[in-house]
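Q: How would the structure tokens look for this protein?
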Amino acid sequence: MRSDGLIVRAGTSAIDPGNALRVARRCVRESLPGEWIVKPMGAESRDFTVRRKRSSVNPTVAQAFEMARTLRRHRDVEDCEPSLLMPVDGPREMQLRTGRRAGITARRLSGLDSSSSGGGSHLSCSAAADWAHSLCSIRKAWDLVPPAGGKSKGKGIVIGHPDTGYTDHPEITDPGRLLTLRGYDFEDEDRDARDPLTGRSAGHGTSTGSVIMSSDSTAAGVIGVAPQASLIPLRVTGNVVILSFGKLASAIRYAVDSGVHVISISLGGPVSSRFLDRAVHYAVERGVIVVCAAGNVWPFVVYPARLDEAIAVAACNCQGQVWADSASGSAVDITAPGESVWRAESKSGSFVVSQSSGTSYATAIVAGAAALWLAYHGRDRLVSKYGVQNLASVFREQLILHGYDRPLRWDTEQFGVGILNAEKLLKGRLPGSAMASGLRALRSVAAPTRRSSVDQIADLFPEATPVAIRKGLSKFLGVSDIRLNREIEDVADEIAYHAATNMRFRELILAGKLSASVAAGTAGSSRALASRRTSRRTSAPKAPKPPAVSKQLKAMTGTLK
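A: Here is the predicted structure in token form.
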């Protein structure tokens, strides 16, 4: 596992973008050896990607985390985190043995689109191409007469689609609605977001895009939820499991600046990113609804779906039952069809229509429903009534108050309020005003904001109690429980990364035996952390020696460094 660089936030909110770039370049020059390329992540952003100028060897994971810590100590740097590369085979050693997900393999964890075409069995009720529409009352939503100024079938709404890019599959190729000229390729850094069909998730963007916006005019094939909406393709990855969110965060900002109204994100990863959180907030503050996949097989909801301002979607089948491989948890807002969904397939080199499964498709369906809702009520009218910054929170409120059916014995704590019902969503009576506390309040009971780093790491261990994880982390760092929250801050992101990707690391944290297994690296870890915490921030800090905790992580992770 390697890193392709860093993501850094420079200066203060008062600095202008031009000066922020100069500050970022100076901070990198003063903090890190060698030559680096610093690029802004958005037109008005203080966030920048940092990559080596000339190097055939990328930094190791351990080196990247240490460089990020070094940059964070610079007085003119607000934040920094590593940008990590996903290996071809997905997270190594990740074989979680928790509950119904016993025996999960790394290969199964490697995508949010888990089923290939043709293979496997499908329930008979999924044979009809429009079964998901029937379950979610999509056609009934189309048949509703919009109020004055409103439109049907998502007309006039633009959806941003960060994924693997697009192809010329006839299910999505519509020059008037597939807006390729407004797209961007964040992998190759050019204006053509075409999917080269070479990555592990080749064709995924075409598949999810078809579920969102394919035409309803053909008798056979995929029928999009919002067949008159437009879509901007954004290529951000070749693998829909992501360990670094720099390109996705850049794509979100780009989509917002390009005038999208909804962003559909059918990808994600197990480790949080402050830069991604800020990008989602940037979108929501500008009236963009962000819909994200809860994840497949992972025993917890992945990022960015876990973020308070994102709408997290789990998956069900044609019988209205939870899909066996859907991620679940208190962060889920709603469930939609994700098992055996009909979609466009282009992975094999030919353009066909087939069935596949994943929370990716459930997300596309809810994103399409968001487009229906915006078009039906008239987005301009909604903005005038509630204010652009409140639009996403009003949509979520309508979704969780009106836009669902709840099957008998439905687990609302794990799979949201129920299964999407688009007709009820559109017919729901609009509130007189937006909630004063906004989007975060709608998830405050289940997922309160400003949770500690220890709590966020504990979320990655649903098979254990938070108390047990605190005990394991305290032993690893060699500190008391009282001091844990303070001592862990500087290395929390690195610990979370290994907890999410290294099975051996997880087992030893759970057993409370980690420090005993790397006794040579344990001594002095507390002192090293304390030293870093109390060290003065200077304009040009010297690179410190690797702290003991990093040595422990390096010793534990072996081939993952």
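The longest strand covers residues 3-10.

The CA atoms of residues 94 and 326 lie 17 Å apart.

Upvote if useful.
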